[in-house]
Structures are given as structure tokens and as C-alpha cells.
Amino acid sequence: MMIFKGINRVTQAYGGNHGGIDIVGDTDPTVRCVADGTVYLIQKWDGKTKTGSQSYGNLVIVIDDKKRYYYAHLKSIAVKQGQKVKQGDTIGIMGSTGNSTGPHVHFEVRTGATTATRIDPTPYCGVENRKGVYTEPYRYTSKDGRRALQIAARLAKPTPDDLKLLDMDGDGKITTKDAREVLRKAAKLNVK
Length: 192
Ligand SMILES: [Zn+2]
Description:
This protein is α+β, with helices and mostly antiparallel strands. The chain is 17% helix and 30% strand.
């Protein structure tokens, strides 16, 4: 699961003296929780300090049984300390607080109770550990399948969004063949 819906643009990779990964949400600035857990700590930025823990700016740390997940430089925070959070829940809005030069989220994963070790965060946020643009594959549902069947049977007119989503062979129309393909994907058969 990715932090942002739509485009997740990695601007700085993890490694060297960079303990996390920097990601910009170009489509939607909502920072979403990547794993179920509990809000372990909330830090509010003082508006000026760029060193020490304040370098993280407005920060949310979520903990599960093994790891801590840091969401840093937030513009605003949507959770409270001690709150249980689920994957996909809104953590806050991407920002540029703390030691930051532009809006992004610095996402960090740490293990260990007292001697926290920073680990490669990319397996937890669905991007690769290098600069680039990443998007979550669209998950087809049976509702999409029903819509495609309706259009194929001329019971409904396709919208531009339908064509973008349901025209699987890209021939500009939605046929029963497209509908079958959508249904296969919805049933997670042959999903690429
Ligand atoms: Zn960073």
C-alpha cells in the first residue's frame, strides 16, 4: 500500500545519511497510514527549529508489534496519540515543516524497542528505493465488471472515465470481451 493516492514521486532515496525516503504526493497530498497500528507519538513543530527531533517538523509515529513508522514534515496532523489506526487511514496532510525545503513526506521505518534501527522503508510503502514516479495499480471490483457488461449490452453509455478504466484492449469501445477481462481482474484471476 502506498502513502499517497495516485502519484508517489520519490525525490530522495533511503540510504547513506538519509534514514528514510522522501515522497511527494502529486495527485493528492493526503498522507495515508501504510500499516495497522497505534499512534505512538505526535510531535508538533515549533515553527522555527530545524535541528534535533524538530528537524522532523510535525511528526506522527505509528507503532505496531515490531516496528515504528515515521511520517514527517506534515502540514497538519489528523490523528491523536494513542489512537488505533488502520492501513489507509488519513495520518495528515503533506507539508514542509521542520528541516524541509518543499512539501513532501519523509517516511522512515525503525525496528527495535530501545536501540531503534532504521531499515529500508520501501517494502512498506510500495515504491522502489530510487527517484521515480510510482502509482498503485488500480484494483478492479465486481461493480466495474457490472458497469462494463451494461455498456457492452448498450444498457449504459460509456463516460470518458469508463473508457479509461474499462476499455481493456484500448480500441475505443467497451465490448463483452473487455467486460470479461474486467471481471477476471475483479476476481483477481490473471492479475498483473
Ligand atoms: Zn527525508
